[in-house]
Each structure stands twice: as structure tokens, then as C-alpha cells.
Amino acid sequence: MANMIQIARDQVTQLTQAAYEKAAAEGLLPGGQEIRGSVEVPKDSKNGDFASSFAMAGAKALRQNPRAVAQIILDHLDLEGSLFRHVEIAGPGFLNFFYAPKWYGEVIAAVEAEPETYGSSDEGKGSKVMVEFVSANPTGPMHMGNARGGVLGDTLANVLHRVGYDTWKEFYVNDAGNQIHKFATSIYARYMQLLVGEENYEFPAEGYQGEDIREMAKAFYEVNGDKYKDTDESVWEEPISRFGLERNIPKMQADLRKYGIEYDQWFMESELHSSGYVAETVEKLTAGGWTYEKDGALWLDTTGLLKAKYLREGKTQEQVDKLDLKDDVLRRANGFYTYFAADIAYHRNKFEKRGFDKVINVWGADHHGHVARLQAALDGLGLDGSHRLVIVLMQLVNLLQDGKPVRMSKRTGKAIALHDLLDEISVDAARYYFNNRTSTSPLDFDLGLAVRQDSENPVYYVQYAHARICSLLGRMKEEGAEVKAAAEVDAALLSAPEELALLKNLAEYPEEVRLAARDYDPSRINRYLTALAADFHRFYNACRCMVDDKQLQAARLKLADTVRLVLANGLNLLGVSAPEKM
Asked: CB burial class (10 A; 0-12, 13-18, 19+) of residue 71?
């Protein structure tokens, strides 16, 4: 769990405080002052690895100008055995700390000690977090948006687990409601057209188009013949919808499994209805005074809930009054509960029944208006949805082929399906690409670039760095040079700019993992790996490993192997392979 940058940062504070107390004991500075200076990484490495503002922050309380305070602190710093070799005064009184070889050696040792879990921490403290993602309607093939949401949710869950959260991956199956009725109606129409001809049975205007519906109708006919010809909807709707779901859901599971995604649970919306949980949830909202009846329907006072939410969050009454807020139907006049009612019940189930501390949903950006409404409804149930429900919104994907838009699927005539995509490119390329930008940015996915084997292809670039190191280690082993343990390597010999840059980058990995979890942005891992690969290629071109100086050779070989371990670690976090040969 070693975060060598944080360890060094904390040591700057400790060393500075110890120097101040020593100077105060000698009467050179007033004692007993609590001084809170910052410790930052300078933009220019010439100004050290850390800059402390202790002297400037404490100048007034210590009754001396900042540079005088800085000089006294510098004179009393004891760097013996520390992670720093020397300290300089700069500007108005900054204390600039420079790493010692010991720090670089401990970076290597930290990776060696836990290569597969390097970057882990206990920041999550075992808190239970559910990540719900994809949750596509089971009425047809999954498309490109699902492909992006799949890797985003899966990788985010991996990152959260790495920093100490107890994570759970879930797919919410919308196997009830209007879309399932439309699904069954569409299949039945194609079924009837098989029996009486397309010209003799009208396809519903709002029905689901696509070859998959025709194929489903044909399969239904092959099993049932004309059993359901000209029967009432109450007779055919349930068996047709069940028939379709029993075939579509396993296809979705197989596609996602091929994509490297396994869920802890596939949760069925129908269970919420059949168990009475939706009705019970609506009753709880009514008991809380948050519903009213109008035109035979039961409505949620979304306006009141949102106003209360926004006032708690710091908006003024005047600002809230200007918002265009609308209420939501929970139960229609025909007695059927709406999708929103089921969604509230589902999230109540997550928090109240299953005890998750936090829930993260990965949604398309078109669901933006639904976020605050759902959070407010959960607030109305006393579940603090405004803080415990996090929505990661995801922008659209533009599919390109050599720079030109690709719009049609070979199989469905609609959006590109996930199984079509994985027929064209590798799972590694798909997972890396779809996680290569922050979720809030639109993503251009170029099929031509994704299969290229050159440095323009980011996944190839990173994987090639790993394979290049494996090849190097193999050649060196043939020459009798084995990778030594960190304790047997002299890190002080790694002094070239390319070597130091590589070591610093290795040390940054735990912080990148932490920030990826904090910001719900696993694309940070992609950017880190690309930068690490670039630093390795620069090191490889500038610093030969096969040299006469055996100690230097051992140090460089160990450095290369350490990079290999971290590249493999990061790729594994993304669900991408780390090939040894390319």
C-alpha cells in the first residue's frame, strides 16, 4: 500500500516541524506556534521535488521575514536517514526539497513488494459500494453506448475495489413495463406476418424494427406453430415476452462475458413488482406527505422535494422559485406503476434492504434530467439520496472508419451492436478505447486506428512497451543477466534524466489510482499508462541496459522490470491483457 509520494510529502512536514522545534528550543524562533504551511510539487523539477511554504506561512507569528525563517529552518534540518538529499531556499522563502537515492530505491522496493496490488490503499475502509452499469433494455442487441458504459462501469468498480471499497457490480434488467409490452407486440406482429403475410397484418408504428425481431418471431413460430394466431393480447403477451427475454438475456450475458465483464447480480425489475415492493415504496412516500392524487393518477411532489434539496445545497429561495420544476406520475389512472416508481423502489432496495453505503450508476447523458429527481425522491424516503447516490453521466460515442462516420449495423440495420464491434476489433482495443477519455467527453472511436499496430494506436503503444520489456529481459537473461532484488540494486546509479523521470512516474501510480476512484474517472489510468510507456521508450532509447558496469546494468534492468510490473498492473485494472510478445 506504499504511496511513496505521499510518504515523502508527509516527511517534508515532519522534518520542517522538527527543525522549527529545534530552533525554538535554542531560542532562535518563538516556540509554541502552530504553523500550517503547504507542501506542493513545483511545476519545474529544477525547483526540487517538493516546495514547503512553512517559512512564509509562519513569518508573522515568528516575527521574522520569510527568508530569515527559512534560513533558520534550513540550518536545523536533519536529513540523515531521510528521503531527501538536500534542501534549498528559493524565492520569497520556499524550502525546496530534493529526493535522495534512498527514495528512488524505495519506489522500486514498493513495487517489488506488491506487484499485483501496487497502488492499493484502505481509503474506502470496506465501505459497501454498488456500481450499476449498462442495464440495457433486454429488447434487442446491445449497442455502442452500452459498450462505453460497460467498460466505464467495470473499470470504475475495479478502481474502487483497489482503494479499499467493498464493491458490487450489478445489471438492472428492465423486464417489466411499457418497453416489454412493445417488445412482445413487435414480435407478435412479425409472427402474424409470417402466418398471414406482411401485407395482411400491420406492424405497429411504435414497434421495434430490426432483423432481431424478425428472427425472434421466426423462432417463436418454429416452437409454437399457429397456436397464438388471432388470439387476444391477454393470451399471447406473457408467453411471447417470456420467450423473447429467455433468449435475449443470455445473449446479453454472453456478449458482456466476451467483453470481459462479469456481474455479481442481474437484478430483475419484475421482482420489485411481484413482491409488492414498488407499491410499498409508493406508500412510504405517501406516508411522508410527498404524493397527491390528480386526474385519477397518483403523483409525486417532485417540485417540493427538489426545492427542499436545492435549499439544503445552498441555493436561495429566489433561485429555487425561478426553476421550472415539474411533478411525476407514480401510479397511472389504470393502476399501473410508472418506470420512475419502479426506479425509486429499486434504489430504496439498494440502500434500505441490501445495505449499500453508496450507489454509483453509469448513465447516458440523455438521462441528466432524471438525476436530481431520483436523488430527491430518495431524500423523501429518508435515504439521503443527494449524497449517497452518485450518477456518472456518459457522453455519446461516434464510430469512425478511417476518419469517416459509420452509422449502420450489418445485422440489425440500426445502431452498431456490441457483438458486431467485437467481430471487428479485439476486446483489448475496445476496452482501452472506450475508457480512454473522461465520461463527460464525447468519444470518437476509429475502427481503423483500433487495429493498427503502431504508436498511433494507444492500446498497442502501451502493450508494446510491456512486450518490449519482456523481450529485453529475455535477451539479457540469455547473456546471464538476471533481474536482482531491490535490496541488491544501487538506486543511486540511476541518475540520468530519463531514469529519474521514469522512477518518479512509477511513484505516481498509487496517487493516480486514488484520484481515479475519488473523481469516478478511470480514464486517468489510461492516461497514466500512456505516459509511463512514453517515459519507458525514452529511457530505452537513451540508456543502454547492456553495459560493462555490472552494477549499473543491474540497476537499469531492475528499473525496466519494475516498469513492466506496473504496466501489467494498470492494464489488468482496465481488463486489458499485457502480452509478452507482439
From this structure: middle
Per DSSP, helices labelled H in 92-210 are 101-113, 144-162, 178-196
Residue 1, pLDDT above cutoff 70: no
Cell numbers placing 485: 532484488
Sheet holding 166-173, edge to edge: 265-268, 166-173, 128-132, 358-364, 389-394
- Which stretch of 136-145, 193-202, 307-316, 331-340 has the lowest confidence by average pLDDT? 136-145
Report CA 573 to chain centroid distance, whole Å: 10
Instruction: At 387, list the grid cell.
Output: 449524497
- Sequence-distant (≥ 6) Cβ neighbours of residue 541 within 8 angstroms: none
Give the pTM.
0.91
Strand order in the sheet with 443-446: 404-405, 397-401, 443-446
Could you write out the DSSP letters of every residue in 300-311? E-HHHHHHHHHH
Please check whether residue 419 is in contact with residue 141, taking contact to mean a CB–CB distance below 8 angstroms.
Answer: yes
Alpha helices in 197-316 (DSSP H): 211-224, 233-258, 269-274, 277-287, 302-312
Q: Are 433 and 450 in contact (CB under 8 A)?
A: yes
pLDDT band at 457 (very low <50, low <70, confident <90, very high): very high
Return the closest-CA partner of residue 507 out of 224, 77, 83, 51: 83
What's the DSSP call for residue 455?
T
Residue with cell 481515479: 516
Specify which residues 87 forms β-bridges with: 97
- Distance spanning both ends of the chain, measured CA to CA: 32
Q: Do 3 and 9 meet the contact criterion of CB atoms below 8 Å apart?
A: no
Residue 50: Cβ-neighbour burial (10 angstroms; 0-12, 13-18, 19+): buried
* Strand bridging mode 443-446 / 397-401: parallel
Q: Output the CA torsion sign for 27, 33, 34, 35.
A: negative
Across 122-126, average pLDDT: 96
Confidence of residue 407 (pLDDT cuts 50, 70, 90): low
Contact predicate 359/350, CB 8 Å: yes
Cα dihedral 331→334→336→339 (10° resolution): -60
Residue 201 has, within 13 A of its CA and on its CB side, a CA count of 16
- The residues, any chain, with a CB within 8 Å of residue 343's CB and separated by 6 or more, are 374
Q: Do residues 430 and 397 touch, judged by C-beta distance below 8 A?
A: no
Ordered DSSP codes for 248-263: HHHHHHHHHHHTT---
pLDDT for position 278: 98
The residues with which 375 forms a beta bridge, in sequence order, are none
d(CA 42, CA 63): 27
CB 68 within 8 A of CB 92: no
Per-residue pLDDT tens over the stretch 493-532 = 999 999 999 999 999 999 999 999 999 999 999 999 999 9
Q: Check residue 408 and give its pLDDT.
A: 52
Average pLDDT for 470-494: 95
Q: How far is CA 202 from CA 206, 225, 236, 512, in A?
A: 12, 20, 17, 57
CA distance 64 to 77: 18
The runs of H, that is alpha helices, within 76-167 are 101-113, 144-162
